[in-house]
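thread: overnight batch results

M.L. [08:02]
morning all. the overnight job finished for the chain we discussed friday. pasting input first so we're all looking at the same thing
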Amino acid sequence: MKTKEEAILEIRGESIGIITEQSSFEERFQNQTLRPILKFQNDLFLEVFKNYAVKQKGIFFTYTPEKKMSYIETAIQRDIKFRNSLKGIIIGLFTITEYKEYIQNSSNINKRMMNLLIERLKSQVQLLEIA
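M.L. [08:03]
and the structure it wrote out:
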């Protein structure tokens, strides 16, 4: 039987991006851990953001694509409760080893995590519509 760590790593898939000997710890963590989790959880992030936008009176859905991009960035950067919820969705798929690495440098990793998520949502803004 697989351990929890083995199962988590298997469902997340391979690293995304180039990792070299010169890669910094943060870059390595981003490509080995964050990117695969963001890809794996993509559909959930889209639904979570749509739900957030609906609960914020739905004005997001009336905006132009450019204004939607700005809204995504502002919502994730300024709404601490929402940002912490998104972080939880990501951290929940860390292995114990990754979590121990994360807590050593959580500030820098959090910045990378949120920037990657913002860019991912922006690149899929057309999917952020009420069905």
